[in-house]
Amino acid sequence: MTRLKIFRTFLPIAASSAFIASVSVAAGDTEEWKLEFAKSLGGAVPTAVDICGLNAVVGNSSSLGAAMIVQRSASGPWMDGVSLQRPSNVSLFGFSVAIDGDVAIVGGPGSGGRAAIYERAATGEWSEGLVLANPGGGSQFGYAVDIEEGIALVGAPQGGAAGRAHVFEQAPNGEWLPVQVLAGSGGQAVNFGSSVAISAGLALVGAPSGTSGRAELFRRDSSGIWNTEQIFTYPGLPQLGTAVGIDADTVVVGAPAAAGRAVVWERLKGGDWDAGTLLPGGSNLFGTAVAIGNDRILIGAPSPGAGGAVGFKRAGDGSWILEANLPALGFGSQLGQSVAIDGDQAMVGANGAFGIYRQAGCPGEDCIADLNCDGIVDGGDLSILLGDWGLTDSPANISDKGPVNGADLALLLSDWGLCP
């Protein structure tokens, strides 16, 4: 997801003590990923997670449910932020979460379903939740959510005859308005809306079934209408579409049934999509959760017991190779219930716990301007810096001397090119 900065004034929300036992963790035990922060929430309910820049959102849907923001400064450790206020008449609140910069969305699919959007003001306070309109009861509205650049996507896998996904857009006055209802094409999709993802004018919606499943890609046209562009299927993979992720021209879809697999599709130069590549896997529940970004893929495999999350990276020839199993948390169970990735950061949820990870040595002291950790200081890093201009708590605060400004820009330009 890209960073989105929206500033308004809201009433503060008091921090909650419902989330307990957080620890800052020293370097983990893989070369590629280090565990920076881990937290036990108690209980045995799967934890939903997402991360973007200096903010992360955590959902735990036990009882009526709860959600919270976890934050860090540009140079400081992760720390508890605030609990997000649960709207009234919402159950399973925190079952799904997503965050884009200073805007978060939390789903609660129980009792017909709700989803609420929260925004952080310039003062750092998070708003009371703005509840999105639910088109009807019994739909599991809020089962899956994503948000990017003023567009929210909410899955309702029991909506209509075979499931729905609802698109909302933020109006200039700040309101979030329903603009379109997406449904599966061809009448063959079931449980459509079980998983959703957005990336740069593209929306990906999963529709898993017991015998097969699919994921459907929609593109937003110049008039704002979302149209089907591609349907992804793969033979012999039950529950395909349980989890979906998209990053520009690369799609990853999880199929955790049986042995558990995940498939990656990539757009070819002519515009068509390839036939799909199976990632090495096959462990119990591999593919329950997926995430993609910065030429890396994370796959959740929350098998009974400890569980795990597996990282892949794109090789020089374009293939995907196994990178590492992410370090265990030391508490919680079935790690890999949810996964998220943003630049050099990753986040993984377990039953009653979550962890935040960072790629080892990124950004390194010898290439501190490599903000997206791709080994080169270029336009991608410049975009991050300009997007965070004026902010103090940003990785783009390279000089560590106040808000992001011309001094940081000068340092970035002086490091332009390949990292040492």
Care to describe what's here?
It is built from two helices and 31 strands. By secondary structure, it is mostly beta strands. Strands 1-2-29-28-27 form a five-stranded antiparallel beta sheet, with no helix packed on it. Strand 23 and strand 24 form a beta hairpin. It is globular and about 55 Å long. The model is unreliable at 1-30 (pLDDT under 50).
Please tag this protein with its features:
420 residues; mainly beta; 5-stranded antiparallel sheet; disordered N terminus
Fold topology:
Blueprint: E1 20-24, E2 33-40, E3 47-52, E4 55-60, E5 66-72, E6 78-84, E7 96-100, E8 103-108, E9 114-119, E10 130-131, E11 144-148, E12 151-156, E13 164-170, E14 176-182, E15 195-199, E16 202-207, E17 214-220, E18 226-232, E19 243-247, E20 250-255, E21 261-266, E22 277-278, E23 289-293, E24 296-300, E25 309-314, E26 320-325, E27 333-342, E28 345-351, E29 353-359, E30 376-377, H1 379-387, H2 406-414, E31 417-418
Antiparallel strand pairs: 1-2, 2-29, 3-4, 4-5, 5-6, 7-8, 8-9, 9-10, 11-12, 12-13, 13-14, 15-16, 16-17, 17-18, 19-20, 20-21, 21-22, 23-24, 24-25, 25-26, 27-28, 28-29, 30-31
Number of strands: 31
Unreliable spans: 1-30
Strand content: 35-45%
Task: Note the gap between the termini.
Answer: 28 Å
Into which percent range does the helicity of residues fall?
Answer: under 10%
Q: Rg from C-alpha positions? A: 20 Å
The side-by-side strand order for the widest beta sheet comes to 1-2-29-28-27
